[in-house]
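hey so i finally got around to running the thing on that chain from the lab meeting. sorry it took forever, my laptop kept dying and i had to restart like 3 times. anyway pasting the input first so we r on the same page abt which one it is
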Amino acid sequence: FTGIGLSEAKARETLRNGALSALLRRAVLQARSALGPALDKATGTLLYNTAARLKDPKHLGFLVGYIARREILTDLQLSAALEYVRSHPLEPLDVADFERACGVGVCITPEQIEEAVEAVISKHRAALLAERYHFNMGLLMGEARNQLRWADGKTIKNEVDLQVLHLLGPKTEADLEKKPKVAKARLAPAEKQKVAVLENGDIGAETQSLLEQLRGEALKFHKPGENYKTEGYVVTPNTMALLKQHLAITGGQVRTRFPPEPNGILHIGHAKAINFNFGYAKANGGVCFLRYDDTNPEKEEEKYFTAIREMVEWLGYQPYAVTHASDYFDQLYTWALELICRGHAYVCHQKVEEIKGHNPPPSPWRDRPVEESLLLFEDMRKGKFGEGEATLRMKLVMEDGKMDPVAYRVKFTPHHRTGDKWCIYPTYDYTHCLCDSIEHITHSLCTKEFQARRSSYFWLCNALDVYCPVQWEYGRLNLLYTVVSKRKIIRLVETGAVRDWDDPRLFTLTALRRRGFPPEAINNFCARVGVTVAQATMEPHLLEACAREVLNEHAPRAMAVLEPLKVTITNFPSPKALEVLVPNFPADESRGFHKVPFHQIVYIEETDFREEADKGYKRLAPGQPVGLRHTGYVIAIQNVIKDVSGRVIELEVTCTKSDVAEKPKAFIHWVSVPLACEVRLYERLFLHKNPEDPSEVPGGFLSDLNPDSLRVVHNALVDSSVQSARPFDKFQFERLGYFSVDPDSEQGKMVFNRTVTLKEDPGKA
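ok and heres what got predicted. didnt touch it at all, straight out
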């Protein structure tokens, strides 16, 4: 390897890669047989790059032949050759077409290079004379290369340098000075947050970073119809014909799907999956299906179907079509018979316990005759076997070592859509890829744990000779201080730790909606996490920060008092209540005002009054007046009234117009003629970051519950501007935080959930 120009370190690194070193050895031996034992460094580099970048080793000899005959001389030609063989997986290759695509035999003369550079410089002459050597010379190189694709890059650069020198002369001191950087215009925060809720397929002003990320991923993903360019994709003699049919049906459109199981409520991790599947389709002009994987009838309930669709639409996405795995049960059954007929599946009688794990004993029924499996499978369908007595298994070994995954099992449970028609139901391993094939999905996007099923995905489609989509994996999104597993949430509900799936302390999507998180905030959070292959485990305060950004722009202001203290203004200037105009958004008064009554009796927070003002305390105290926000008045203590226990129950104050009073140290919020309400204040449900980790919480997640995760304020007061608010309406209660109207609200008693505080608690960061 050092003999072909590799450094000793590179040669040793190559030897550590068995597959690469074997290919490179073959390439070098073939080249030496044609060129002799001494290979120059340029040839060696081409051979190394061929071995390292070639996806299908069967083309190695073909490409090395062109290098040895000096017909592929540059890395540019080699890149074109590698792309050609990747794009044409079927034998035999069209040699003439290959040579055209790789520039074989193309000779570029110095005169052609000179003419091309001359034309490019003439085009940019005015800008060159104005900017001189600060002009982007790479632009000249690029345009000249576009005209002469197979020309040597160094020769073009030398010609560009020569002609620029001839035009401009030698560099001056001014030319040597660095060009000043131009500041890029930045979007205002409000513009960044705009989210358009559009039908899938329309591209609008959604979170810019998300769409840009997803468009960026398109560079790594295959184009529709070019599935065979994906590493690991299996090409059969029928692949190209099936892809041609696929393109005729889809018109080359990107198609994705979001395939939840309807046996639970979606959580924050699903939000990333929704954003990735629907967002990738939207970003690339495609469509996304919402497909329910309804193959487990005993766990599925109608409420889950409804809630899943509601959450998808709440996040701003409209499915291209809503489908069910059960829509295709007849076709899946027909294909199961075909799989048996082709010798790829058999009926097995091993018990579930016997085939669990990665090293189960081989099935003694693996080689039973096809006719026997067909009869037994028909008996399974007719209900002649009990649950667990027979399964249909596929003959393959998966990446994780699992052998012969189950395709069908017996379940005597009526299905919510098909009733009693079936007593056998397909598994995920069998159903998923075939439903993708039926719907002509182009990109089957799933989380990383399904990577072990990729080979079975390709195998099953190819075993049945049907269109085979491409499975791509991405990293899951997890949050600290929570649990999202359906089983554990059910335990929390059963033990009374939370009320239901939508308890605002959970991180299900219905819970986040109830707590008041805007869908835009969740989408923005997913965008910030990014479309990564690695699993992402995030702190909840990052999601809360996204909520603050959106709510600050969209939640109108109101005033509320959680711990009311009565204040009587003894010299109130009017016999009846005054009306005070309060801006909905103080930073932008053009967005309107609302009116609140200002009466002789107002209520302030207990914590906004002290009988003795400590150093640094700026709010109301004897001898220390405060302003009442938005009223134009300053109040000063006249009398402090206490009950028999010595607790302060009322203040009597005097008021003075703020334009004549001395400017107070602080302005406080207040309410007058208020509405009674209940306010629910939430903290983290669990005390530890990883409540499911035995090393962190030996007693199990139920032992880690935070006793202070919910505090209910029963007798809070809120100003009357919110009286017409509906469930899920959001407000910023001045100085208190962001709050959302809870569905428990009734006539005469509103209920508010605190979504987040106004500022992040440093202790939680």
